[in-house]
């Protein structure tokens, strides 16, 4: 009797398990298909981001040294333009306002004419409007988390440049306008990666790490006589796509 009961229960149990497995796979496929079809029906997505980080100015020649870095902060619009139907390839762009700088030590004879009679320290604070253009690659995982990486460049223009200057222990001048002494163009490299995570049906959070390097000399050499000064920014990407 027990053997007969066992023979009847086993096929039924197997049928139930197979049915549950099929339904589970179908649900996962439907979820993935929904995500892909949602992206495939769109040619782009927009978002907003806040990027805290660390900013440094790096001197390439002798006579100028960095005393300390400054807090980096950037905010602006994210825009991904899809290149394929699944949304796994995109051109990443947007527009952002970036704040950066460093505290730099100049030897006697270097730096701005008003302060180069003695060794001077400049607390340089810069503000730029920047437009990044990168190739963005993205892959979905089974837990609805998207993994992305990007590589490309950016261009920008300064909109504000100020500095606090100490040229002698007795002389300290704050908020010196150095805008005319800064190069009018910035351009460089962007590389980074991170994850996308669905927050709601319409919102997707994004978190990543970005490195940004400016190829162009920040300070006008004819004004500062300081060789090449480059910016390096290490950024934490915090954003949301709508």
Description:
The protein has 242 residues and is α+β, with helices and mostly antiparallel strands. The protein has one domain: Porin. Helix content is 18%, strand content 58%. The chain contains 2 helices and 9 strands, in the order H-E-E-E-E-E-E-E-E-H-E. It has helices at 2-40, 221-224; strands spanning 44-59, 64-82, 89-106, 120-140, 146-168, 171-177, 186-198, 204-214, 229-241. The chain starts with a helix and ends with a strand.
Task: Fill in the keyword field for this structure.
9 strands; Porin; Beta-barrel_OMP_2; 242 residues; 8-stranded antiparallel beta barrel
Question: What is the gist of this entry?
Answer:
By secondary structure, the chain is of the alpha+beta class. The chain is 18% helix and 58% strand.
- Enumerate the strands of the largest sheet in spatial order, edge to edge or round the barrel: 1-2-3-4-5-7-8-9
Rg result:
27 Å
CATH C-level category: Mainly Beta
Shape: elongated
Tell me what portion of residues adopts beta-strand conformation.
Answer: over 45%
Order of helices and strands: HEEEEEEEEHE
CATH third-level topology: Porin
The largest sheet, given as strand count, sense and whether it forms a barrel, is: 8 strands, antiparallel, barrel
Number of E-state strands: 9
CATH architecture: Beta Barrel
Distance between the termini: 63 Å
When the domains are counted, the total is 1
Category by helix and strand content: alpha+beta
Helix content: 10-25%
The averaged pLDDT comes out at: 85
> With helices defined by DSSP (H or I, 4 residues minimum), what is the helix count?
2
Uncertain ranges? 1-38
């Amino acid at each position: 009797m027990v053997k007969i009961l066992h023979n009847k229960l086993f096929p039924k149990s197997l049928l139930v398990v197979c049915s549950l497995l099929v339904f589970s796979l179908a649900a996962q496929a439907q979820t993935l298909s929904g995500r892909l079809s949602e992206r495939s029906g769109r040619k782009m997505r927009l978002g907003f981001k806040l990027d805290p980080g660390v900013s440094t100015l790096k001197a390439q020649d002798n006579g100028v040294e960095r005393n300390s870095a400054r807090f980096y902060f950037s905010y602006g619009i994210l825009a991904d333009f899809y290149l394929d139907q699944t949304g796994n390839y995109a051109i990443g762009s947007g527009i952002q306002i970036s704040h950066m700088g460093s505290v730099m030590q100049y030897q006697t004879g270097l730096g701005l004419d008003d302060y180069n009679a003695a060794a001077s320290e400049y607390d340089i604070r810069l503000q730029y409007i920047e437009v990044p253009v990168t190739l963005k690659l993205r892959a979905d995982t089974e837990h609805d988390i998207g993994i992305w990486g990007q590589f490309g460049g950016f261009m920008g223009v300064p909109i504000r440049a100020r500095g606090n200057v100490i040229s002698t222990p007795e002389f300290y001048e704050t908020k010196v306008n150095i805008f005319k002494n800064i190069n009018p163009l910035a351009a460089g490299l962007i590389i980074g990666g991170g994850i996308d995570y669905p927050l709601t049906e319409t919102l997707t959070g994004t978190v990543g790490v970005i490195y940004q390097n400016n190829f162009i000399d920040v300070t006008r050499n004819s004004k500062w006589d300081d060789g090449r000064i480059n910016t390096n920014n290490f950024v934490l990407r915090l954003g949301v796509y709508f």
